[in-house]
Design goal:
Blueprint lengths: L3 H4 L5 H11 L1 H11 L5 E6 L5 H7 L4 E8 L5 H7 L4 E4 L13 E5 L8 H12 L5 E7 L7 H6 L7 H10 L2 E9 L1 H13 L7 H21 L8 E8 L1
Helix pairs in contact: 2-10, 3-10
Length: 240
Amino acid sequence: MKNWEADRPREPAANFEFSALGEAKNYRAALIKEFAPVLTGNVLEVGAGIGQITEVVRAQPGVQKVMGVEPDGAFLDGFRKRLPDVALIQGTADAIRPESRWDAIICVNVLEHIEADERELRNYRGLLAQQHGHLCLFVPARPEIYAPIDKDFGHFRRYRRPELKRKLLDAGFQIVRLNYFNAVGYFAWWLNFCVLKKRVFDVSAVRLFDRVIFPAVFAWESRVLRPPFGQSLIAIARAV
């Protein structure tokens, strides 16, 4: 398996990725709402970054304990300043004791950074096996919109639904749900990063999308119709 330090985005990509995510409050809340039914007990977040997702996970009523794992030392101080009372390990999933028991693992925009993604999924299954816990997985979707900015971030791939389904099943998971997410974002990504070849996020545009457009998009997708394509894929899978 490749060293994550080589796979994770470097400066300035990491900074503007987190700056943009910092504005995406509704987006983060929507992700955790999707995962909420299985976020109970002891939760491990792989690739915790500076704790933006961790902060929302910790607030879930069924969660008893959260621990973060983050390989990039540049992010550790930010995490600890944000969440000084949450345990954090510098490393990858390989650093977690295999006999430890986890009810859920959350992995948001991390798997695409790992070249040996199938091995990584088997690691997650092993950590969840004793509790028959759930993997909450979120990844970029659709290789046709792989853009220069994906390469800047250290993304090895964007996923198709059948590919991710196969990899989860081969790793020993039972799929609870697997669907595309944020169809409008698909077109925004294609225009900004494939056509216009932008290499940075416009933070004000992210803020506008998050406050004005995304709530309506998420309401439609979560309550009316899951889209046949999207900017991302979201999966909940149970270790069997």
